[in-house]
Amino acid sequence: MDNDENIYANASSSRASPREGAIYFQWWKRPSRAAAVCLGLLCVLLLAGIISLSVYQRNQSTSYNNLTKARDQLQKERDQLQKERDQLQKEKENLNKKIKGRRCPEGWREFEFSCYYITNENKAWSQSREECHEFGADLVIINSKEEQVFINGLNQTKNHVWIGLTDSVIEGTWKWVDGTPLTTANWGKGQPNSNKGIDQDCGAIWDHSGWWNDEKCLSKHKGICEK
User: Fold this and answer.
1) What whole-number distance in Å separates Cα of residue 9 and Cα of residue 132?
2) I want to staple 137 with a disulfide (CB 3.0 to 4.6 A). Which of 18, 49, 152, 225 is the partner?
3) What is the pLDDT of residues 60-71, one digit of tens each?
4) Element (H, E) at 214
5) Global pTM exceeds 0.70
6) Angle 194-200-204 from CA coordinates, rounded to 5°
């Protein structure tokens, strides 16, 4: 009986060994699956991080490009403003030089930035203009009421004087001798009237009152020169 019991015990022991090995194998296998799951999650997180980083970098690159373009545009505008400023500075300096150096010739009168002179002889409009040219001037162009008042003070006579105004090119379209259209006028009552169809294509000032009149260009008057 003892031998049989020993044999049974040995047999039982030998059958138990494989079960213990299976338990050991399953214990070893479970951590491997957990590690694989963790590794997979890490890969997913890493991929998500890479994608997020790529999107961020792309957005940053777009923002950088936009800022670069804006900076370049501002630099161009700044350079343009600097050029305009320099140009205005030069013009200011030149104007100051002209103002400081402005000295009207003897017999001429100064007003603002121009010199004025009334010719001595009565001549036709075109001849009076030629005389002004000899002085490096032209028949006066009146640009403001203030200038008109000044000219009224120059002409202290009751005689007509020529000004640089004509409608000889297109009847009724009055222009100054430099080609600019008439914008501010000082016509006398009922003027200009062309005197019932007779060509009166040249402008004159009646007298010291300052009112303008259209006159026959061949009429002979003194002229007011300006330079």
Assistant:
1) 148
2) 225
3) 888 888 888 899
4) strand 212-215
5) no
6) 110
